[in-house]
Amino acid sequence: MIKDIIKLAPIALLALSACGGGGTVNNGNAEDRFVDSVVNSLSLKHKIGQLNQVTAVGVEEMEKLAAEGMMGSILNETNLDNLHRIQKAAVDNPPHIPVLISRDVIHGYKTIFPIPLGQAASFDPELVRQGSEISAIEAASDGIRWTFAPMLDIARDPRWGRIAEGYGEDAYLTSVMGAAAVKGYQGDDLSKETSIAACAKHFVGYGAATAGRDYNSTFIPMRLLRNVYLPPFRAAAQAGCATYMSSFNDNDGVPSTGNKLILTDILRNEWKFDGFVVSDWFSVGEMINHGFAADMKDAAEKAINAGLDMDMVANAYKDYLETLVSEGKVSESKITEACKNVVRIKYRLGLFQNPYPTVSQDVKYAPEHLEAALHAAEQSAVMLKNNGALPLKNVKKILLCGPMADAPHDQLGTWVFDGEKSHTITPLAAFKEAGYDVTYVAGLTYSRDSNTSKFAEVTRAAKSADAIIFVGGEESILSGEAHCLSNLNLQGAQSELLETLKKTGKPVVAVIMAGRPLTITDDIKNTDAILYMFHPGTMGGNALVNLVAGKVTPSGKLPASFPKNAGQIPVYYNQNNTGRPASGNEILLDDIPAEAGQTSLGCTSYMLDTGFGPLYPFGYGLSYTEFAFSDFSVNKTEFSGENDEIKVSFTIKNTGNYEGAEVAQLYVRDLVGSITRPIKELKGFKKVYLQKGEQQNVEITVPLSSLKFYGLDDKEILEKGEFEVWIATSSANEDIKWKTKITVK
Ligand code: BGC
Questions:
Q1: Which pLDDT tens digit goes with each residue over 442-496?
Q2: Which domain holds residue 704?
Q3: What's the pLDDT band for 21 if we cut at 50, 70, 90?
């Protein structure tokens, strides 16, 4: 031990004494003492070095930057030998501060979990926590101690390809899932060798890009920002998220990377965040394109003064901060502060004591990781339709077809750098492994394929099949960053293939693997059952077999409303009431006689061709089994004060023929407010797993403080008055099981 300590650089010894050998989370004074002692002794240049994040630019160059103390963090280098060389250069040379190694570990590192949108459909935060923990363990085995996840952008527009990376359209669901992910990545103790720092991104409003075009401007007024887009980020701060990433978009004219209101006033001063904020990729430099900064120097000045601590790959801080200090445009104390924020997180990660990875390589694709990924894929699947075709009964021979039935790369989904398709279990592999008599005729080779020449062969093959399983959707590259679409119908000739399948008269089960809600309105009639699996990850094939075989009952619920067509977007469940709310009995296009006279009587807010509601509402999903709700009660009817709690109790019984899970969803409506209030808002949920015949008493608690909102003067208020509270199995009124009225006094 003594010998080991002697080998450590002096700064590591300091860390050891400051944290008593076991630095964990905020260690109060010991941590402050350590951070102060490290940072206060640094030259200005070395402080700036900590604020510079470099992408893989060749090991020699990175080693040089590390040795000079000019690289606080690195991303996209995963070669362990290279990383060792770089880290050694950093800790062996002044200022002896280890480099923070980062990577986009978004929904798995080697073992790939369903895309986050799919995980959100599970409505099971523990599953998200566990998936993130496993991702952290696998990533840490390659030296990665910082991930750029979770993405907490509210997405009300599925044209935006990055809807795949987040938890959907709802602020509450996103807050709960985001906090679970932070806990999973970071664990209870960030200094543990298997914990990695999380990064809440993209701060903020990025998902509201105009018309769903990535990187586009957003125009989110302050109240909407406060009430919808900021809450998941606040929840991440409360969960102890170590870092944040500023977003690419300019909101109402101010790029996030130069937005002091967001980065300093709200994040630091209101939420008391004490980690660090990194820019998005080159977003400091992009402020020039925005026309918000004249040149790179101006951009560096605006970013650091707004509260942006670390510059991702733009080199703006490295090249200009020293000059800006000498010119008096940036104070050295601002740089010291930013440097302390970075060093604080490195300290919490235990990097000063253990700069090198110690996690065994064997953790990758460990059996328990694959098991968790299987469970996650099963729980993420949402059954949208079932006329009795599922679960399969008396089915021996299956015709498996469609472009995603054997697409090991594409079923992994977007943002997969490290997971290997050779480990993917596709539906084809899984059906064979499960012993089904499978005939596989893809029909279409990839999702955009419009060549119908194989359809005749599919039809022939269907003749001897008991059931057809079509697996379609979209390739992984069609969603994710910069992959936005204006038409969300099934790509290529997939709809025609479904039509052809329907004509065979055999039961057609459509399985959709996609990164977003697709507009499958016209395809529904050509199916007997629909399972929406999002991109399910490594174990998607096995999950599908278990689901269709009835070993596992579908229990996913939609984390975003499914539009009828792209022209209906944005369509989301928690909109404000209009002065002319739709009644559901509106006339539609075909009801209008020719030469109809002008009329506005009875007109409400809807579209003549799509009506009012979505194709499938938020929170919706079917099951094989049935659930009976009973014995509802609320703890009282009058509430007051922020510390009060609404407790709704009830019993759920599985009255059907399969073991399964139901998601009880608690919604509220503030009937009259000082500003118009949403017609419904999810404020609590519980997923309850029940055996056949089993029942459980459930209680959902809603802190009264969660009824607060930002009102007229940008202040958060709890308004007095009447609220409706209900329990439902989706956001649709038809699925309400019980409703009551309460009063806030
Ligand atoms: C994305 C971020 C990502 C970063 C680093 C950017 O293009 O917007 O989400 O973390 O690249 O790869």
A1: 999 999 999 999 999 999 999 999 999 999 999 999 999 999 999 999 999 999 9
A2: 627-744
A3: very low
The residue whose CB lies within 8 Å of the most ligand 1 atoms, and thus the one to mutate among 204, 281, 313, 414, is: 281
Going by alpha carbons, the residue nearest to atom 5 of ligand 1 is: 281
Same domain, 111 and 238: yes
Pair (40, 127) in one structural domain:
yes
Please give the average per-residue pLDDT across 323-329, as a whole number.
98
Catalytic site residue from 142, 157, 280, 406: 280
CA–centroid distance, residue 674 to ligand 1 (Å) = 39
Residue bearing tokens 């010998």: 3
Q: Would you say residue 3 has pLDDT above 80?
A: no
Q: Residue of the nearest CA to atom 4 in ligand 1?
A: 281
| 618: nearest Cα among 671, 667, 690 | 667
Task: Enter the tokens of residue 412.
Answer: 């992994």
Tally of structural domains, the chain: 3
214 is catalytic: no
Same domain, 545 and 693: no
pLDDT by residue (tens digit) across 423-446? Answer: 999 999 999 999 999 999 999 999
Which is the closest atom of ligand 1 to the Cα of 165?
9
Asked if residue 65 belongs to a domain, the reply is no
The DSSP secondary structure of 102-162, one letter per residue, reads EE--SSBSSSBPPPHHHHHHTT-HHHHHHHHHHHHHHHHTTT--EE---B------TTSGG
Is the pTM value of this prediction over 0.90? yes
Q: What is the mean pLDDT of the chain?
A: 95
One-letter amino acid at 166 equals: G
